[in-house]
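Action item from last meeting closed. Structure (173 res):
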C-alpha cells in the first residue's frame, strides 16, 4: 500500500479564548507528539494551502487545543476554522513497536477470526474507554465496532487488514 507524503492530522475547530488558540478535532496525535512535529500544512475547505508552525499544544479531551506562530487573536484563529491540518509522514515520531497511528487504520479491511470480511474502516473514534472503528460493509451498511485490545487480534498494515474477535451478535446490531 503506497504511503502518502502528507497525512491528515485533524480538523481545525472553533477558536478557544482570545489569544489565537483553536480546537483540533479528530486529531490522531497527542499534544506531545504535535509539539515534536511542529510544522504543518493547513488546507482550507476550498483546498487553499498555507504552512503553519506550531507554537503550543495542550490536551483538552477529546480534542487538543493548539496555537500557531503568527496567529495571536481570536479573529486570526477564525480564518483557520473548518480547515484540515496535515503533516509530512516522515516528520511524525515513531509510534513504537506493534503500534499504529489512527490514520493508518482508515482504509484497512476488517476480518473476523474465521476469515469473514466485515468491511473497511472509514473512521476511528476516540472514546474514554477504547477506540470505536466505523466499518462500512460490502452491503453499504456502517457498523460501529468497539476496538479494545482484547477484540483486536492482529493489525497488518502491509497487508491492509485487521483481524478482530467480535462478540456474538455484535454485527447484527
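Sequence:
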Amino acid at each position: 500500500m503506497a504511503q502518502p507524503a502528507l497525512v491528515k492530522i485533524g480538523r481545525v475547530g472553533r477558536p478557544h479564548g482570545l489569544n489565537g488558540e483553536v480546537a483540533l478535532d479528530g486529531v490522531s496525535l497527542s499534544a506531545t507528539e504535535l509539539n515534536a512535529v511542529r510544522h504543518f500544512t493547513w488546507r482550507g475547505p476550498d483546498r487553499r494551502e498555507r504552512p503553519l508552525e506550531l507554537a503550543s499544544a495542550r490536551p483538552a479531551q477529546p480534542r487538543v487545543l493548539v496555537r500557531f506562530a503568527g496567529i495571536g487573536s481570536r479573529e486570526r484563529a477564525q480564518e483557520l476554522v473548518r480547515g484540515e491540518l496535515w503533516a509530512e509522514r516522515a516528520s511524525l515520531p515513531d509510534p513504537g513497536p506493534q503500534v499504529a497511528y489512527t490514520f493508518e487504520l482508515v482504509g484497512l479491511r476488517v476480518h473476523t477470526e474465521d476469515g469473514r470480511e466485515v468491511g473497511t474502516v472509514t473512521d476511528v473514534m476516540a472514546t474514554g474507554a477504547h477506540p470505536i472503528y466505523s466499518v462500512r460493509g460490502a452491503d453499504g451498511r456502517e457498523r460501529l465496532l468497539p476496538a479494545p485490545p482484547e477484540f483486536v487480534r492482529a493489525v497488518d498494515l502491509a497487508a491492509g487488514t485487521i483481524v478482530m474477535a467480535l462478540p456474538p451478535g455484535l454485527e447484527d446490531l
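Note appended to the action item: The chain has two domains: 6-91, 102-172.
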